[in-house]
Amino acid sequence: MTTAFIDRRTLLKTGASALALTASGVPAAVAQEKRLRMYWWGSRERAERTFKVNDLYSARNPGVKIDGETLSWGDYWPRLATQAAGRNAPDIIQMDYRYIFEYARRGALLALDEFMPAVLNIADFGKDAIDSGRVDGKVYGVSLGLNSTAILYNKTAFEAAGVNPPTHETTWAQFAEICAELTKATKKEGFWGSQDGGGVEPGLEIWMRQRGKALYTPEGKLGFDAKDIAEWYGYWDDMRKRKACVPPDVQALDRGSNDSAMLSLGKAATAFEHSNLLVGYQTLNPQKLSMTMYPTGGPGAKPGQYLKPSQMWSVYARTKFNEEAARIVNFFVEDQEAAKVLTVERGVPASAAMRKFITPDLNELDQQSIRYISLVSDRVGPLPAPPPNGAGEIQRTLRRINEEVGFARTTVNAAGKQFIEEAQSILARG
Question: All domains of the chain, ordered by start, with CATH?
Answer without folding.
Answer: 5-147+309-371 (3.40.190.10), 149-305+389-429 (3.40.190.10)
